[in-house]
Amino acid sequence: WRVVPQVKRPIGPAWVIGQLTHEALRRWRFPDADNFDVFLWPFALEAGLTDRAEIQATINEVRRLLRRFQTHPLCAEIEKADRWHEVPYALPGDSGVIDLLYRSAAEWTIVDFKTDEVRSIAEMRETIEREHYAEQVRRYIDAITPQIGQRPRGRLVFLRVGTALQVEDV
């Protein structure tokens, strides 16, 4: 299948932007890396985009979000830490993948990246409530605590809050 719209659109759908952003983050690849576009292009095709201009505009949006993240102190903190990307977890009746688990000094942290496009912190908090994102991170915490021997901190990292990035502790 392909994501071929009825009318030509300038940029890929939000879910494709989110998927490409997650692909870059899970591999810790950022826009300053060589061949960043070449790296993301196959993921855009796999997601179903077909128009070259739309693919490029979508990659440019991912680049913008990742640059925003790179300027945040959290990125530098994670860069220095021991980190594990895409950590599988399982609880009775629930399983999935944690975006990022990292350890800095003696503290463990779970990060769940969100690419939902929200206009304000208030709208972000409404989205957290509506989509049950805090409960999701709490399940991650419950699943990973026995494995690491301590309760980690949980964080939601929204990459698209207006023109800013917002970190919300859970």
Compact summary:
46% of the residues lie in helices and 26% in strands. It contains 6 helices and 5 strands; from the N terminus they run ααααβββααββ. Helix 1 (14-26) crosses helix 3 (52-70).
What's the arrangement of strands in the largest beta sheet? 1-2-3-4-5
The SSE string, one letter per element, is: HHHHEEEHHEE
Range of helix content: 40-55%
Annotation, overall tally of beta strands: 5
Report the mean per-residue pLDDT as an integer. Answer: 94
What structural class is derived from the secondary structure elements?
alpha+beta
Tell me the span between the first and last alpha carbons.
Answer: 37 Å
Rg result: 17 Å
Outline the low-pLDDT stretches. none
Question: How much β-strand is present in the residues?
Answer: 25-35%
Give the biggest beta sheet.
5 strands, mixed
Instruction: Based on Cα principal axes, name the global outline.
Output: globular
Number of helices: 6
Record keyword descriptors for this entry.
five-stranded mixed β-sheet; 6 helices; 46% helix; 170 residues; 5 strands
Folded structure, characterized:
The protein is of the alpha+beta class. The chain has six helices and five strands, in the order ααααβββααββ. Helix content is 46%, strand content 26%. Helix 1 packs across helix 3.
